[in-house]
Amino acid sequence: MEKINLLATISVITIFISLFLSFFLVTVKTEHKLSNRLFAFFLILTAIDISINLVDLFKFSLNIRIFISTFFFLQLPAFYLYVLSVCYSDFKLKPKHLAHSIPFLTANLILLPCFYAVNLTSKIKFLEKSSSMPEVQFNHILVHVQILLYIIAAFMILRKAKKIYLENYSGASIESLKWLFQFTVALSFFFIIALFKNIFKFTEQPNVSESLKIGLFFFQLIIIFWYLYKALNNPSLFRNIDSKLKLVEDIIFEEKNSSQLAINEKEYNSALLKLKQYMIDEKPFHNPSLTIQDISAAIEIPVRDLSILINHKLEQHFYDFINTYRIESAMNILKDTAKSKVTVLEILYDVGFNSKSSFNTAFKKHTGYTPTDYRKIL
């Protein structure tokens, strides 16, 4: 009885927080409306899925209860589309995305003749033997395959988006991509535990399954609180990238296949000299939102050629290339005894950073010291 009450309490709290965060995401003023709505949809699906545990409170019919349980098939597709929308600024929902609902439709069509369309007595018999019913076993296999595929797909999207970001942007949004990666890891861990819970459910140790179930609800509540904290403190958490941008390795591959190099050695040296002179004279790195497109327009070198020049020829991501200039500028300020009263926070904003953590990470990577320690040893 105490276990049931605990589960119901956790469920109610999680549902309330999920719906509250959904309302916040839908109503908050932001440029990323689609991303917010997709995550709100994911949270609403989560709340609906959790509501199954409150069957005694809501008195759901068997058909509704089973139908709601199949909403799980929509949760990971919703999260995957959310990841796409966060990563790419020009992402839009299209008719082709309806294909993500196929597992959900398949699961319900399988249950139609053997459960939904039969009388109450047959339904009860079906539930009593559910662990041995081929339809239920098929749906369990389907959901586990879906979990695996969508988790892999989400990580592949994040990996590609991070590489494109590093090759084309210089802002602090890389921290946001790292956070989204961490959030995806947390969700992956959650679904892996859920997988083991389902395995134990069909063994001679159902108590292990119930214990894991309670643990999952605690973990789910923590994940949602974590996201709520981030959302409230960073309402414009992510800066998207353009999906039309290509990885340098793909550009080089295309150039080789067409038997045409982007720039020859003489042009490369000329472009490099022009780029370095521009960086020294104009100091564009002071702009925290600087992109490779901005520099391309300023020095009149095509984005493709400039991208190959920096990311391939110099063997540096654009992100690191710009940060090198920012760190050199910060080092000069720290060395200047006339500016000894200028704080590290003022310096990081002055040289183009807008995140203390990214500044400290970049500075230590470049010098081996934190900014504060570097100032002390001078």
Automatic annotation (TrEMBL):
One of its GO terms (molecular function) is DNA-binding transcription factor activity. SMART domains: HTH_ARAC (SM00342). Keywords: DNA-binding, Membrane, Transcription, Transcription regulation, Transmembrane, Transmembrane helix. It comes from the Bacteria. The chain crosses the membrane at residues 6-26, 38-58, 64-86, 98-118, 138-158, 179-200, 212-229. PROSITE patterns: HTH_ARAC_FAMILY_1, HTH_ARAC_FAMILY_2. Residues 273-377 form the HTH araC/xylS-type domain. This is AraC family transcriptional regulator.
